[in-house]
Structures are given as structure tokens and as C-alpha cells.
Write a structure and sequence with these properties.
Two copies of one chain form a homodimer. By secondary structure, chain A is an alpha+beta fold. Chain A has three domains: 148 residues, Orthogonal Bundle (Butyryl-Coa Dehydrogenase, subunit A, domain 1), CATH 1.10.540.10; 130 residues, Butyryl-CoA Dehydrogenase, subunit A, domain 2; 150 residues. Chain A is 56% helix and 11% strand. The first copy, chain A, contains 21 helices and twelve strands. In chain A, the strands form three sheets. In chain A, strands 3, 4, 5, 6, 7, 10, 11 and 12 form an eight-stranded mixed beta sheet that branches. A two-stranded antiparallel sheet of chain A has the order 1-2. In chain A, strands 8-9 form a two-stranded antiparallel ribbon. In chain A, 62% of the residues are buried. The mean pLDDT of chain A is 96. At the A-B interface, helix 10, helix 11, helix 12, helix 13 and helix 16 of A face helix 10, helix 11, helix 12, helix 13 and helix 16 of B.
């Protein structure tokens, strides 16, 4: 099943929801002046559709395999990666002095979506490299930067993140891997890591591992964790590769999805210790890790959008071809109609489309806020943008990945019996999507992050500013005199009212009764996403309604408001009056 | 991961929701008098947990394979089936004169749930045999009954249903398989069938295929379809097996889940035609098929309940063992707590539990109504029961299978990264569950069936009677003076109000504007299920609240009311004011 990047909606979302035009007009993205955005997106779309997308199914059926310590990626994988890096795509986000293009996150994000629609398993590797680049660039010594960054930026080498250990998943307090000071500025790393994405493979000549470990005299808990750079092959002073470091892949996982992405168990220090270099300060590894993580969460959100888009395209194509039954208004004895004429199938397709575009809207808003948080010249505006990015990141990550599963599952449903057959490809999207709600912080952790750490920013005013903007959109829908919006304004208004009341309840409750607040964290996050996504789609539709495809934008916004946003009052109740039912679980689990 | 049948909740649901006690008291289930129910369920629980459940993962990893026309089922499969039939479990539903026990559907259903929790792929085969027994018993000639029923009832032979062809899935109008009259009372069948569950295997000596085909002079469409019995091996007059019939398995599918259940492509008549016998009358095959189908839909509903129960048990056990983070009220420096202490994990577990039990409640209500539809002595009461079964069957099928996927997916989420690893087993439940919303009529078709064919029964009064019963339950919750119910009464009342308004809208709309009615069919069905399931759980909780585990029943009913039923008003809006947004899809799909 082919993939054609939805360049039109991507550009419309960048412009009308994420505010690309404003960014350029304010001089905050001078490199995008003069139509570069469209040109980059068209080229990326071509590469994603023509080169990567055809490998998605191959990657799923072959998977990556481990034999005698060697990981083999699927046929065509290495060649596609080489072509992709040679075309410069890996360098899009990298700093310019190391050969990168340092393009705005907004534009990068649109491309990230495309690579992941084409193949989640393929695009995942480079996302980890970006994280490694960011950590080394922000916290690494000059020596580390000079030795590693150019190769990582070009994609000649790939990077990994080594956090998880069997006993330490979400809770890094329990980390046990150890690092010993040698005295020459290097460290010796020992320990076992699991779930290391692209931990071993032959796609690049070297792999640069970023590894969390404890020094012998480190305090317990997360304040005693340091971050180390541990290359697969040591790098000589002249940049050539030296000896193999004391590390190996001890196993790869047999997973539900993303089969082509090797998920490795890594053993460090079988023979005395892998040689590592400290990144940042001793015992401050977690701060370095967080640098990588916020961006990574946005990228996982984009994976959710990406898989939903791919599943939608496949279901739409199938529904236009597969004939079963006849249309309600067809004359008796008519031949079978394509199933897209059936109201319930249309409803499902609209549901897929609207959720995908809403998740795209929220995710691109995060990207725009990140750009402003770096590029605004005014300190207060930088801070406001940074807080906005902080608030919307968990919302985007959790909502986009939740709907990724939801939309992919509806895609299977539209295929009927064929959807359950692996050769069709619809089921792969569901299997692949299933990881996104788990990694980079489970969606439950995103909800906790939103409620406990993000809502209180600027005393709650950062959230209130977003809510106030949402109300502005509703006002414009009300005044738009566009019948196609149907009941959108009323539904959005109800959702924003619910969000505001739930926000007030959260702000009042989290300090005194955190257990109650946390019982409602997940429904609160979803409520936030519905209001944010619904107003995002409405904003895009308002801007586009006079254009050629304006009616489609209005119809999509309307569907989301009338069929999805409607859940908002129920979510408010779950937040504000639902904690008791969660607490009563004592009676159940004690039984 | 082990499975222990939830005998306690099964019995409570049978008694307090499905009305088992009343059935017995009214003399309608004399065979269950004197504690037989408990004894049967305890034995079934033992067999399901000890013998079948351990095979579930083996079945998934080995799958069934096809080589040179021979299908091999996974190791242990044949032996378990033999033990299961020898213990008499296959004969539970069969007619007594053919060696069956003819136990009430209510009791059978509880057992069916258990077999399917233990292994969906295992239990699926015997479900098809039940369908074959019903069709032959209701419509077959005396010769067919004498030749086949005893062996099918004992399980010595298995049966299949052959409906689907590549061009004819949900739409049987397009069926092409042909049957020619030979003149000796037999027919020659030719054609290709796909998606035939347990179409070929070596678990039994013979396989009895029920095949839909057209006679040469048949009218087009579904009024020209006849049903034939086509055995794999012809049966001699003395009951021994004769020649292999002209049929073969031409392929088996590579599926997302239920790997152990061979899903076969069947070729009939490669060498002139398979010998078949007509079941019922010529061109009336569809009516015979419907006999099998209603019960089959209940059984698929029970599969949804079953997989949800298994996923819940696995997630609950994991959450009690896996340690990450510390409880909110734990002293600083405490060791990690089991994740079941975290409010969001508790919320997810309660969500799984409440949805599973609500789906069980609705499904068992269907079974009870089916029993009354056969066993009531009064004609009017039989009709009322039959209409109730007709209404609740699509509700149970669609809701239970939808939550089957939902609950299994939450189970994966609770496992975190481990949930994505196949060895854990959580992912298998999600993969297995995914078929249930598709086969035996997609859930979209269930919703259409509910709205177009079931709502109008007795001029809408059959539905209204159910709604009125639901109101009675709310009255009792209001008067119960049990604080543990929290806001349950208010939430249930709101849902029933929504259901009643949506029902009136549907009854008024389906004739004049069927397209609008069908656009809301799926949300309508879900709304129905929330009100029915919510009041079902409340009824059980009311009956149990003074018992030892009463608090758990009340807490579960409360969670469902406060966190799940709350969506009802949103669903009402989708039904009564959401059709426009679906119709506007024209602007989208034409673009």
C-alpha cells in the first residue's frame, strides 16, 4: 500500500494553526522566506513516498535479526538509509557549524511526520540520533563535539539512548549500571541495558551510545545518575575508527510491531568496562537526558500522527475500491457499490481523518512554540513560548499516540476480514502504533506531567492563556456565518467550559489531595486535547473556507466538534467527580 | 500467564442480572435445580484453567500450518480437544436424543466464556460445530440428522460454516458457488470459499462443511441461495467413513491473531463436484443460516467478554508484582511500590474490570432471553423474550467485542514496555481480540441490524420495555441508601434519558431519512450498551451489597457509571445532531 504525504494539509496546518506565516513575518524564521517550506516539503514527500514507504512491509516481514552478535536489518534498509542521509535529510535539524541546516522545528516536524508515515521502524533510528546530537551539543565537552557531532549530524554514525534496565523502566531511581573514574578523564562503564532502540546494526560504521550510569560515590536516586558517551568503536585522534569498545548486543526483542527496528539488550563491560566520556557534570545526567526527552516526546507525537495518516490513506483507498452492498438510494438490482457510500463507513473514515488532523494541529503547535522559545528576541515572549511548549508536549504525545492506535484499529475495521490478514498491511499499522503510547514516558506519565508540573506554570496563567485563545476561536466560528460549521461553536464552547472548570479543580486539588488529582490526570489530558484539537481544526477551517478545498476543512472541523469533542463534559465529570470511584478500587483489589 | 475462571462473578451475573434464580423458580430450567449450575461451572473452570489455558501461547507461537494439503494444529491441540470432548463438554448444548445435554443457553454461555478465555483459537472450532448442529437439527432431513448429529454433538466430528467468497463478504448477494442437482437427491458443489474457520485439520476423523451455493435456476440475490451439507469424507450406510469428497483446503491465512485456528480457503469440485445434501428447502439457505447466526453472534459477544477477562487478570497480576515508583503517601526513601498503588494504574484496572463485567451482564441477558424464548409456556411471553434476545444480540456482539479490543489494549499499556514484547502474552490478547469486531457480521452491521430491524419490533415497544426496566433499576439505586454508589443514579438516569430520546429520534427518522439514521447507528448502539450495561452492574451490586464481596460489586458499578456511562449524552448528540457532519463527508471525499 502506497503513501502519499498530505502536503496540502501539512502546509495548511503549519500556516493556519501553528502560525508559520507569523513566524516568518516577525523575522523569526528568515531561512524559510521565499517559499523554501513548500520546496522542502515537496522533496521530503517524494523521498518518503518513493523510497521509504515501499520498505515498510518488507521491514515488517523480515524484521531485524541477531546472529552471533551481529544484527541484520531488512533488505533495502541500509541502502535507503544511505540515500536518505546523502540527500541531506538527517542533517535538517543539526547545528550549522557541524554541517546541519538548523531549520526550524516546525519544518523538521512536518518532515518527521512524513518519514514516520513512510515507515515508523525506519524513521525511529534517526530520531534517536537527533536526541544524541542535542545532548552532546548542549552539554558535551569541546572534544566530544569535535569528535562526534559532524558524523552524527550527517548521519554517517547513528546515536542511541540507554536508559532502561530490567528493574528501572519509568522509575530511573532504580538504575544500577555503574561508571568508574579512570583518572585520565575517561570512565569505565558496566551494566545491562534493555529496550535499546537501534542498539546494534550494520547500517552505519559506528554507533554512539548515550548511557546513564552511577558513579561509585553517587547519591542514591535520580540525583546520582550521570550520562556517558560510549562509542561502539573508539575513535582515533585522526577521526578513524579504532578498537571495538567493551560492549555488545546480548539479545533483541520479539515485538508486536516495528519489527525492523532492532530493540536490543546491551551488555557493557563484560571485559572490565566499556570506555566512556562524561556528558555534562557528574550526577547531573538526568538534566542532560531531559534535554533530549522533550523533543523526543514531540517526535513520538508525530509518530502517532504519522501512523494515523498512513492508516487513513489505506482505509480510504480500500473503501473506494471494495464493493459490498448497494447505496441506500441506488435503484433495485444495482451492482454493488464501493463501501465508501455506506454512512457507517463514511463516519469511520471521517473519524480517522478528523482525529489525525487534530493530532497534527496540536503537535505542530508544540513545534512552533519550541521555535519561539528559542527564537523570540523578547525574554518574556521566550518564556511564554517555552511554557506553552511545556504544556502542550504531554498533550500532543499522549493524544496523538492514543489516536494513532484508535485510527489504525478503525482502519483494520474498514477492511473487514481482509484487515485481519497480515498481507493487507492494515494490521501492521495497528501493531506498529501500539508502542507509541508506551515509550518516551507512558501516556499515564504524560498526564501526570501535565497535571503536576505543567498546569502550575506561571501560577496557572500559562494554561489560562491557551484557554483564552481557544475562546477567541469559538467567537470567530460563531461570527463566521458559515452554515457548514453546524453545531461546532456550541460543542467547542461546551468543551472549553469543561476544560476551564476541570483546570480550576485540578489547580485547587493537586496540592491538598494529589491522589484525587492524579486519578483524573488521564481524562484531564484528553479533555485538554479535545478542546485544543477542536479549536485548532476550526482555526484552519476559518482560514481556508474561501479556498478551493475549504469545504473539506470545514467539514472535518465540524465532524471533530460534533462527534469527538462532544465527549468533553463526560471527561470533566471523570476529573471533578470521578476520583471517589478510583479510590473505591481498594474494595476491589483487596477482595 | 495462567487463567482462573471468575466463577464468582459469573454466578453473580447469572443470578442477579440474567435472572437464573427466576428461571429456576418458574420451573423453566428444571435441570438446573439443586446446585447443578455451580457444579458444572466449577468443573468447567478447572478444565479451562488447567488444560486449555496453558495451550494458548503455544497455539499462538506455533500456529496451524498447511503442507501438501494437510493442516497441522499446534502441539497438544488434538489431545486437549479429545480430552475436552471425552469429558462431555462439546455435548453441553446438543439435543438430548443425539446424546447432548441440552442445558440452558445461560449455562452454556458461561462455559463458552471460559473456553474462550482459556484460548480463543481453541474454543472457536467447537462454536462452529454448534452452528452446524443447530442448522441440521432445525432444517435437516431425518437422514442427515441420523447420519451426522450424534457425531457432531459428541465432538467426534467438527462442523464448519462456508459463507464467504472473495467478492462476497458482508454482502451474500454476490455469492457464486454453484450446486447442481444430480437426480438421486444429492447435489454436486463447486466453488471457492475463503475465511473458513477450522476448514481443514486432523483433530477429528471427519469434518462436516455447511456450504452456501446457488442452484442453476436460482433467482439472483440472497433469495437464490441454498445450504448444503458437504462432508470431508462420505459416510457409508453403516456409519463408517468412505471416500474423500471432492474438496480440499487450498490455503490458510497468515493472520494478526488466533494463529492456532486454521482459517482456510476451500476449493469444492476440482474433479467434477463435491457431493452435498440440501439442508432445508432449495433457495431458502439464508433462513437456515440465520438460525446459526443469532446464536453465533452471542458466542462472539462471549469471546469479547472472554478475552477482556483474560487480559484483565493478566494486567492485575502484573500490576501487583511490577515495582516502579513509590506510593504518594510513602515515606521518602521507601522501596519501589507495586504499580497497582498508582492512581492512574488503578483507574485503568477498574476500567478494564468494569467494562468486562458490563459486557458479561449484557451477554448473559441475551442468553437468558433466548432460553425464555424457547422455554416460556405462554406464547406472548415467548414472543417478548424472543424480541428481547433479538434486540440485545447486536448490542452484546458489538459492545463486548469493542471492549474486548479496548480492554486488551489497556492491558498492554499497564505492562509498559513489557507489553510490547510478545513473550509477555499481553499483546496476543490484543491481536486475538481484533477479529471479534469483524466476523459474524462486522460491528457496523450489528448497529444497522439494531436500528433498522430490531428497534421497530412490536412498534418500538420491545425497546421501550427494556428502557422502562432500566428506569426501575435507577429508582432502586436512588433508594438504596448506599453511599458507595456515589453519583451512579444520576449518571445512569442521564444515560437512560439520552437513550430514550435517541430511540425516539431513530424511530421517527429511519423511515423518512434512513441515511441519517444509519449515520448514527454505531453511536446509538454504544449508547444502548452503556445504559444496559450500567444498569446491569447496578442491579448486581444492589443484590450483592450486603454480601461479603458486596463492596467490590458496588465499586465496580460505580466506576462504570461515573467513568464510562458518562459518555452517553455525547453519543446522543452524535445520533440526533451528528448526521449532518457525516453527510458533509461528500465535500471531503470528492476533494
Amino acid at each position: 500500500m502506497s503513501y502519499r504525504a498530505p502536503v496540502e494539509d501539512i502546509i495548511a496546518t503549519l500556516r493556519h494553526v501553528a502560525g508559520l506565516d507569523g513566524l516568518i513575518a516577525e523575522g523569526l524564521a528568515p531561512e524559510l522566506d521565499g517559499g523554501l517550506t513548500d520546496a522542502v516539503l515537496e522533496e521530503a514527500a517524494k523521498f518518503a513516498g518513493d523510497v521509504i514507504a515501499p520498505l515498510n512491509r518488507v521491514g515488517d516481514t523480515h524484521g531485524s535479526t541477531l546472529k552471533d552478535g551481529v544484527v541484520t536489518t531488512p533488505p533495502g534498509w541500509k541502502e535507503a538509509y544511505k540515500a536518505w542521509t546523502e540527500a541531506g535529510w538527517n542533517a535538517l535539524p543539526g547545528p550549522e557549524i557541524y554541517g546541519g541546516q538548523a531549520l526550524p522545528t516546525l519544518l523538521q516536524s512536518a518532515c518527521t511526520e512524513m518519514w514516520n508515515s513512510a515507515s515508523l521502524a525506519f524513521a525511529l533510528g534517526p530520531l534517536l540520533t537527533i536526541g544524541a546530537i542535542e545532548a552532546v551539543h548542549a552539554h558535551g565537552s569541546e572534544h566530544l563535539k569535535q569528535t562526534y557531532l559532524a558524523k552524527l549530524v550527517s548521519g554517517e554514525w547513528m546515536g542511541t539512548m540507554n536508559l532502561t534496565e530490567p528493574q528501572a523502566g519509568s522509575d530511573l531511581n532504580a538504575l544500577r549500571s555503574r561508571a568508574e573514574r579512570v583518572g585520565d578523564g575517561t570512565y569505565r562503564i558496566t551494566g545491562q541495558k534493555i529496550f535499546i532502540t537501534y542498539g546494534e546494526h550494520g547500517m552505519t560504521e559506528n554507533i554512539i551510545h548515550l548511557v546513564l550510569a552511577r558513579l561509585p560515590d553517587a547519591p542514591p536516586g535520580t540525583r546520582g545518575i550521570s550520562l556517558f558517551l560510549v562509542p561502539k568503536y573508539l575513535v582515533n585522534a585522526d577521526g578513524t575508527l579504532g578498537a571495538h569498545n567493551d560492549l555488545r548486543c546480548s539479545g533483541i526483542e520479539h515485538k508486536l510491531g516495528i519489527h525492523a527496528s532492532p530493540t536490543c539488550s546491551m551488555a557493557y563491560g563484560d571485559n572490565g568496562g566499556a570506555i566512556g566520556w562524561l556528558i555534562g557534570e557528574e550526577n547531573r545526567g538526568l538534566a542532560c537526558m531531559f534535554t533530549m526527552m522533550n523533543n523526543a516526546r514531540l517526535n513520538v507525537a508525530l509518530q502517532g500522527v504519522a501512523i494515523a495518516e498512513r492508516a487513513y490513506q489505506q482505509a480510504l483507498a480500500f473503501a473506494g475500491e471494495r464493493r459490498q452492498g448497494t447505496a441506500l438510494d441506488a435503484p433495485k438490482g444495482s451492482a454493488m457499490s464501493p463501501i465508501i457510500v455506506h454512512p457507517d463507513v463514511r463516519r469511520m473514515l471521517m473519524d480517522m481523518r478528523a482525529k489525525t488532523q487534530a493530532a497534527r494541529a496540536i503537535s505542530y503547535m508544540v513545534a512552533a512554540a519550541l521555535d519561539r522559545s528559542h527564537r523570540e528576541t523578547d525574554e518574556a515572549r521566550r518564556k511564554a513560548a517555552s511554557e506553552r511548549a511545556a504544556i502542550l508536549t504531554p498533550v500532543a504525545k499522549a493524544y496523538a499516540t492514543d489516536i494513532g492506535i484508535d485510527v489504525a484499529s478503525t482502519g483494520v475495521q474498514i477492511h473487514g476480514g481482509m484487515g485481519f490478514i497480515e498481507e493487507t498491511g492494515a494490521a501492521q499499522h495497528l501493531r506498529d502504533a501500539r508502542i507509541c503510547t508506551i515509550y518516551e514516558g507512558t501516556n499515564g506519565i504524560q498526564a501526570i506531567d501535565l497535571v503536576l508540573r505543567k498546569l502550575p506554570l506561571s501560577g496557572g496563567n500559562a494554561v489560562k492563556a491557551l484557554i483564552s485563545e481557544m475562546r477567541g476561536v469559538v467567537g470567530k466560528v460563531e461570527g463566521a456565518n458559515t452554515p457548514g460549521f453546524g453545531h461546532s461553536a456550541a460543542r467547542l464552547k461546551a468543551a472549553i467550559d469543561s476544560l476551564e472548570r476541570a483546570t480550576d479543580w485540578m489547580l485547587a486539588t493537586m496540592g491538598a489531595r494529589p491522589g484525587e488529582a492524579l486519578a483524573g490526570a488521564t481524562p484531564y489530558l484528553k479533555l485538554f486535547a479535545l478542546a485544543q484539537g477542536g479549536t485548532g481544526l476550526a482555526r484552519k477551517a476559518l482560514a481556508m473556507r474561501a479556498e478551493e478545498n475549504g469545504a473539506a476543512a470545514v467539514a472535518t472541523a465540524r465532524f471533530f466538534a460534533e462527534h469527538v469533542v462532544t465527549e468533553a463534559p463526560a471527561l470533566e465529570l471523570a476529573v471533578t467527580e470521578g476520583a471517589g470511584a478510583v479510590e473505591d478500587a481498594d474494595a476491589v483489589f483487596a477482595a
